[in-house]
Amino acid sequence: MRLLVTGGAGYIGSVVAHQLVDAGHQVEILDDLSTGFATNVPENAVLHRTSIHQVAEILTPDSGFDGVLHFAAKIEVAESVRNPEKYWFNNIEGSLTLLRAMRTAGTPRLIFSSTGSMYTGDGVTAFDENAEVRPKNPYAATKATVDMMIAGECAATGLAAASLRYFNASGAVVAHGVHLGERHEPESHLIPILLQTAGGQRDSFTLFGTDYPTPDGTCIRDYVHVADLTTAHLLALDAIEPGSHEVFNLGNGSGYSNRQVLDTVREVTSRDFPVTTAPRRPGDPAVCVASSAKAGDRFGWKPQRPDLADIIGDAWNFHLAVHGDTTG
Predict the structure, then answer these.
(1) What is the rounded distance in angstroms from the CA atom of residue 121 to the CA atom of residue 136?
(2) In the annotation, is 87 catalytic?
(3) Measured distance CA(1)–CA(67) in Å, rounded
(4) Mean pLDDT within 56-67
(5) Which of 2, 126, 140, 210 could pair covalently with 26 via S-S, beta carbons 3.0-4.6 A apart?
(6) What is the pTM of this model?
């Protein structure tokens, strides 16, 4: 198939792009490189360095694309609280521009990068796709809004689509000699922050909340290896049906506490570093874990690399390759 990957120079999008090329698809990437990296683009893919708002220049009626995998979004929760308009413009207006272009071009398939952070619950029960959607920040609200937009488009035009709601994408891969992993500025995700501390780029690590109703008092989160996560996109692309919008949660189905992640980073890196504790952050639930049974039933997806030490080990190798080690 001829496929357009929006945001395909970013973390998850680039891994998907490499997998699509390896599977024999003709891949083109739209990315303005504001947070992505040209070095992430597969050698055999075409890069259009432009904004999602200009997607109609690529998705034309005679372009012949068979589908779109949509990753072009702003993703930082704290930034979305400070500057929600930026998120409405990029995530919602950009996605609406994409849907209009797809309708005009007659592009029949769409896979959307969504998020499990839109769910709310009792803080203990694993989230399935029927869990209550109640976004707690503008970022999650934009993803929930786009999910609804896609559902309406499928009903109106016969588009085949799936929204894949990720939990915590983690780890890294090496594809054709290219290291693909998490790189955010500023960094806000737990495992990269811990690795920056282990690698000497940060002086210490702060553990938020040690009095949660969990075995060790710290939050429990679901971490899924990026290689497992991206495989689901290729499976979903083959499984979606015209006129149908389906939602799939993607996670390991079990969680690790923040303290377990901290201890595993120390073990994998063989580094010790200062750790301070601070009160809970507002809105952080005790437990946030996915039920991914639907993805398993619908298209046979199951994480192949669920072990936390493997996930962190791959992320550490990426960190050393890209950032180096300044502890020595």
Answers:
(1) 12
(2) no
(3) 8
(4) 96
(5) 2
(6) 0.94
Smallest CA-to-CA distance from 166 within 223, 116, 233 is with: 116
Q: What tokens does 26 get?
A: 């003709």
Strands 256-257 and 220-221 come out as: antiparallel
Condensed to tens digits (0 to 9), the pLDDT of residues 123-181 reads: 778 999 999 999 989 999 999 999 999 999 999 999 999 999 999 999 999 998 889 99
Nearest to 214 by CA among 124, 131, 280, 289: 124
Residue 223 buriedness (CB in 10 A; 0-12 / 13-18 / 19+):
buried
Q: Which of 11, 87, 139, 256 is catalytic?
A: 139
Cis peptide bond upstream of 186, omega within 30: yes
